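Input sequence (204 aa), recorded before submission:
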Amino acid sequence: MSSVPSASRAVWLKNLHRWHWISAALCLLGLLMFAVTGFTLNHASQIEAKPQVVNRKAALPATLLAQLAGGAAKQALPTDVAAWARKSFNIDVAGVPAEWEDGEAYVPLPRPGGDAWLRIAADGAAEYEKTDRGAISWLNDLHKGRNTGAVWSWFIDIFAIACLVFAITGFLIMKLHAANRPSTWPVIGLGILVPVLLALLFTH
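Predicted structure, token format:
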């Protein structure tokens, strides 16, 4: 690319710089978050978490007990029972698959940075438990895409594409300036060689 005419080179540089700053702007917060959580995940055993557990109990009205009968595996709670759970525990379980056994319904409610579940026994005794492991755990789960839902999964895919654009345009900009910056290729080579050697020699 360094051999192209100066006019064409200027056009290339202008477009590359445009896409480079646009992708940088799109990636800014994501890169900061993923960099920080990369560090916290790498040192997870040294970062102490203090989970906070909330446990609540209630009794399902007798008028709704009959609706629990005949529940099948992975079938969501009946609409009226889900509405009662929302009112009693301030949770949304509508349409969430439940596990059924001997008339008892168990609804897993995994979430980033914690966990939760709802259990309704055959006699109507209901128990809800929510575990919160803190902000760092929440950010770590966002990094891994753990229990984050489809929208966050789409964001990770789009963010990955934006990072590729950022990296590729940055490389091409450096290539265009390499003739005037002799250290460009040694630094790029070092940036490639170091992680490859570390992975080959020190990981097992």
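Checked by second reader. The beta strands are 52-59, 99-101, 104-108, 114-120, 125-132.
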